[in-house]
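Practice problem 4.
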């Protein structure tokens, strides 16, 4: 942490990103149990702030050769950074001096900007099997359906994924593709963690995460994760179903399987969740997959 007067900011916050319903919330909340870390609800507004800042900066220069921004040689990244510093101070004022964690999943949209304005931040991409994600998107129990957000050009948000099977497949696929590119471009700043691996064997996965974000190993995050799995694809009480993770796609119709294979097949193969031949056999199966 560093401060000036009464204002303190966190130099190295943590962003947990990924497709919605991938397990970003439970991971962030578990990490937030660490004595050096703090997590709260998804912020959401940071994306709109960055988008607005881009527009304000452009309009501040356009047609104003004697504008203040031009006269002071203020670059785009510097302008946005100073605005986001205020948000950083706000988050830090609530974190009690700990590093704060934001787990708004679709901040993938603004990840490159966040890299610029938070030069010491770390990014964790949660990757979950797309078939579980799509099932979870379309079965949010009694929670109201909602729109993910305004779509940005080239971004991963595609609209009413809670009601549309094809849109859910597209959202997962585009999110994973965007996150894979981002992690590949920033290997020192970003990591991908597979949700299924966390569930099956959380201890080594958490140890790797502690090392990546630079904190000492503690038991509390692991204990919280093991006892509180909150995705709707799990049993009603939040526990993993007997026998391990569920496979809801076994009950999908042939049409749903074909839609998933068409929209997300290459992505799920590339992510290593299924082989090409296995996916083809599952798509063509009339009943439950073998």
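Answer key:
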């Amino acid at each position: 942490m560093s401060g000036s007067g009464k204002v303190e900011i966190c130099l190295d916050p943590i962003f947990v990103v990924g497709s919605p319903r991938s397990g970003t919330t439970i991971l962030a909340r578990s990490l937030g149990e660490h004595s050096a870390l703090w997590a709260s609800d998804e912020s959401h507004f940071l994306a709109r702030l960055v988008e607005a800042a881009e527009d304000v900066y452009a309009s501040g220069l356009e047609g104003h050769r004697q504008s203040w921004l031009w006269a002071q040689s203020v670059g785009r990244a510097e302008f946005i950074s100073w605005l986001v510093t205020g948000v950083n101070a706000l988050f830090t004022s609530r974190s009690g001096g700990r590093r704060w964690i934001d787990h708004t999943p679709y901040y993938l949209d603004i990840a490159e900007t966040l890299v610029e304005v938070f030069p010491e931040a770390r990014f964790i991409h949660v990757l979950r099997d797309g078939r579980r994600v799509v099932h979870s998107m379309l079965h949010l129990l009694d929670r109201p359906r909602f729109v993910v957000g305004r779509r940005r050009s080239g971004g991963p948000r595609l609209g009413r994924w809670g009601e549309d099977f094809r849109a859910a497949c597209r959202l997962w696929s585009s999110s994973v593709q965007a996150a894979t590119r981002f992690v590949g471009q920033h290997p020192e700043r970003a990591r991908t963690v597979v949700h299924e691996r966390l569930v099956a064997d959380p201890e080594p996965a958490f140890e790797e995460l502690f090392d990546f974000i630079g904190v000492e190993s503690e038991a509390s995050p692991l204990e919280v994760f093991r006892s509180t799995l909150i995705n709707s694809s799990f049993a009603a009480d939040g526990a993993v179903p007997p026998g391990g993770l569920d496979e809801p796609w076994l009950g999908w119709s042939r049409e749903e399987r074909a839609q998933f294979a068409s929209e997300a097949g290459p992505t799920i193969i590339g992510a290593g969740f299924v082989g090409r031949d296995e996916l083809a056999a599952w798509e063509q199966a009339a009943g439950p997959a073998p």
